[in-house]
Amino acid sequence: MKKIFILAIIGSLVLNISFAQKEKLFKYPFVNQTEFGVLFGRVKNANYSYYYPSYSSYWPNPTPNGYSLQNVANLSIQTFNGFQVRKKTTVGLTTGFDMYSSSVLVPVALGLRHVIYEKNEQGAKLQAGIDAGYGATFGASKNSYEDVTGGILINPTIGFKFPTRNGSAWLVNFGYKYQYMEVSQNFDESDFYNIASVETKNLNRFQVRLGFQF
Amino acid sequence: MKKLLIILFAAFTSWSCVDDCTQTRTYRATVPFQVGIEQVRAGISTEGPQDLVKPGKIYAYDNYLIINEVKKGLHIIDNTNPSSPVKLSFLKIPGVIDMAVRNNILYADSYTDLVALDITNPKSIKEVGRVRNMFNYGLVDGISWYYDPYSKIVTDYEFKTVTQTVSTNCGQNGTVWPVFRGGVAFDSFQGNTNSSGNTSGGTGTGGSMARFTIHDDYLYAATQSDLLVFSIKTGQKPDSVNKINLGWGIETIFPYKDKLFIGSNTGMYIYDNINPASPQRLSIFQHARACDPVVVENDKAYVTLRQGWCGAAPNQLDVVDVRNLGSPFLIKSYQMENPHGLSVLNSKLTVCEGKYGLKSYDAKESTDLKLQQHIKNIHAFDVIQLNDKLLLMIGEDGLYQYDNSDPKNLKLLSKIEVKK
């Protein structure tokens, strides 16, 4: 199993679509799933009461006074490339772009797709998937005011696969995406007062993905 | 299969799609504390030698070296042998920022008061005189203090590092937390000047951060806005004789011949000091708003401008011709990195560059200063050239003494460490 896994990773890295035509080269058939998705989430806008005494620059912690929720949506594009190691199971690598409001992250994750239920081979299938890995910041636009570091991402999904006659399939997936992110502010050297500021973000998103498999 | 379903089920039921973001901020805040004036006045005492913690201005008198521990007291150091200075005692003075010495009488400020202390025996220093309520506010290291004469309370501030965590809205609507940008003007070692200026006999040499200077029988003390003149004819009983309004942002005072050069953060004021009791203003040399110590030698004034809380001017060294005191003019500007205190003696110019180290120049030709040596990897705030051989330099790490006989090759004689 381990060997297959390693092979799958290396294979999907090396392989591109032109390679995929020569199916005999590898033992297992190549699978590509490319999907467009939207990440729906909510953020808390806390209603803080600040008390800043005028005679001091010491700011006590603000008092939380309830919060309002705000809906946010982010675009996500991803491609899963892997090998069908069993009839119903595919393993591979997932990458793409997650366009969060603070930064664009590039997920690099191991992915697993498994058909849970099918009435017959030609019919629609119920597919479960999970991607786990790291959301990296390379390629993200940088600014001098803050540094963004990505973090762990977990993305379980469940959805449908509608096979077409030529062996491809349409995909509709619903899932959950957890992404960790850290934003640290950079202060100017002459800034005597501000020493450090780090914002840790645990992003929990509901995901809807539409895509295509061949 | 079943396991996978269970995991998925667990994930789907436990999820919530609300983001959870927190911001942890560490910042420096000024926190007020109050001291009753009686407590301040009773606070002077001599104690055993102590470590340097936060050194401020330096002052050299005879074989003694006096280092200010900002607002805490003064370190008295026997510097007979500059290669191995000996700490003699620690003189505790609440609120001390500046000091000057003449004829074994040390003049220092203690919040509101000017105190005169007899330092004949540095191990047991006695208070001999006090002029009350001369200063009502002050500013050092970016922290100001003030005195309320009705409640008789001095309110001072100290820096405190605060760490706080709040939950945020994940950067959806800009930052929730306003970023604090100042509030109290800050510049470490505000005011730098007075190297070996023209001082009369029996008087010490001020560190280049001095706001206190002695000329003839008069002690000049610059506050933020005024120049206070004290008569010290009878050493033990200093007497306030005059108060001259200077404007705002006064940083340093440098006596040269019978003139006073006063550095403010918008320019350099020249005062005629022929009548020492009431100096008259001759002229102003204005420059961009910056922190600017000034020193003078051979009718040439050297002014360093640096970026900081006093302003945002470019970092540079201006050489100003002051032969005609009524109309000083700029000879040349030199690019610097972050110049702080400076000192000039016999055309040997030494400039502190903050964290960029110490630079030594040949200043014979004012249109063409030649860099002789650049000592890096040390922090330099302020410098005095005591004589042709000895150079004192203070920075965040401690007090350094150099042999200055060859400006191309300064030799480190000793270092008094700051306790971290």
From TrEMBL, chain A:
It comes from the Bacteria. This is Uncharacterized protein. It comes from Lacihabitans soyangensis.
Automatic annotation (TrEMBL), chain B:
Pfam families: LVIVD. InterPro entries: LVIVD, Quinoprotein_ADH-like_sf, WD40/YVTN_repeat-like_dom_sf. SUPFAM superfamilies: Quinoprotein alcohol dehydrogenase-like. This is LVIVD repeat-containing protein. It comes from Lacihabitans soyangensis.
